[in-house]
Design a protein that fits this description.
153 residues, alpha/beta, Collagenase (Catalytic Domain), four-stranded mixed β-sheet, 5 helices
Length: 153
């Protein structure tokens, strides 16, 4: 698995935590071991430019997903084919505001957004009520299982 994390902000994050989380999600979703993903942390100005350019929406957002090879989850018997999953673009300052409102840490919010975005890259969505339930239940299970598996948890 090739998981690149690039922090273009002044936010202090432990990049290996994002790599470990993505690797956990990849394994849980039975992705090919050679699957590639890029996670980029950017400031509000850069996120606002992307938000306007790609979604024609004003202001910065918390996370955006840019799929590449349209991969879907595999199974234990039939892992997903090799490919480039895409890019996850996070905005730590927007995530920090959301984390404060939700009552948890910025890093927890960023990890949640990372799982959320990887699921989008795998074809999950939350436009319809049933889709939302499936995606958010899976997102919660993946994140909580990852956090519980970490030393000292």
């Amino acid at each position: 698995m090739s998981i690149e994390v690039r922090n273009e902000t002044t936010a202090v994050v432990e990049e290996t935590e994002f790599v470990e989380l993505a690797r956990f999600v990849f394994e849980s979703m039975h992705l090919h071991p050679a699957t590639e993903l890029s996670i980029i942390l950017i400031d509000e100005q850069a996120m606002e430019r992307l938000h306007v350019q790609w979604l024609d929406l004003p202001g910065p957002t918390d996370v955006m997903s840019f799929p590449m090879d349209e991969l879907t989850p595999g199974s234990a018997e039939h892992p997903a084919p090799e490919g480039l999953l895409g890019d996850v673009v996070l905005c730590p300052s927007v995530a920090a505001k959301q984390a404060a409102e939700a009552g948890h840490s910025t890093v927890e919010e960023l990890l949640l957004l990372t799982v959320h975005s990887i699921l989008h890259l795998l074809g999950y969505d939350h436009m319809e009520a049933e889709e939302r339930k499936v995606m958010f239940d899976l997102q919660r299970t993946l994140l909580l299982t990852f956090l519980a598996s970490r030393p000292g948890s």
